[in-house]
Structures are given as C-alpha cells and as structure tokens.
C-alpha cells in the first residue's frame, strides 16, 4: 500500500512516527518502511527504529 489516511492524517513510507517514550524520557522514533492493509480495516506499519541520543536546545529537535 503506497499510503493510507487515518482520521485525516496521511501516512506513507519515510514518514517518522513516535513509537514510544524511553525510560530516560527521550522519544523512540520509527521510520515507516512499508504499510500493510488487511480487509480495509487493519493497518500495520513496518518501521525501522531509530536511536535518539539527546534533545538539542539550539535547533529545538532530537538527534
């Protein structure tokens, strides 16, 4: 499936999702690699998990 829309949000490969919050309060991000749709009701995102090192106050983003 090249993309899917859920409640007005369009999800497609290479989009970054927040998967969880690590015990050190840093987010765990995942990059969508593939989207699987079952019976037009169940959506599964295959994600590549990334490593969050720290929050950079200068650019106000995670690295």
From TrEMBL:
Domain of life of the source: Eukaryota
Annotated protein name in UniProt: Uncharacterized protein
Organism in which the protein naturally occurs: Aphis craccivora (Cowpea aphid)
Upper lineage: Eukaryota, Metazoa, Ecdysozoa, Arthropoda, Hexapoda
